[in-house]
Design a protein that fits this description.
Elements (H helix, E strand, L loop, with lengths): L10 E5 L4 E4 L23 E4 L4 E5 L19
Length: 78
C-alpha cells in the first residue's frame, strides 16, 4: 500500500532532546505528523525515533522521504 500524502511539505514541530516520538508513515493519522494508530491494517508502521536535540524539526508530510522522519524535499517531485 502507498502512503497517503498528508501535506505536500514538512511539518515544523518542536521536539525535546532525548524524548521518543512516533512519526506517522501512512498518512492516515489525525495527529499529523505523529502516529495515532490509524495505520492498523494498512501494512505501514510508524517510524520511532529519539530527538537528538531540543528545537524545531521539519518532519515529512508527504510520507515519501528517503530520510524518515525528516523532510528531504521529496514533496517537490510528487
Amino acid at each position: 500500500m502507498e502512503p497517503i500524502i498528508a501535506k505536500k511539505g514538512p511539518f515544523a514541530v518542536e521536539l525535546e532532546e532525548g524524548k521518543n516520538y512516533h512519526w506517522c508513515a501512512c498518512g492516515k493519522s489525525a495527529n499529523q505528523p505523529f502516529c495515532d494508530g490509524a495505520h492498523k491494517g494498512s501494512g505501514i508502521t510508524p517510524t520511532s525515533f529519539t530527538a537528538e536535540k531540543t528545537g524545531t524539526a521539519y518532519l515529512c508530510g508527504c510520507k515519501h522521504t528517503k530520510n524518515p522522519p525528516y523532510c528531504d524535499g521529496s514533496h517537490h517531485n510528487l
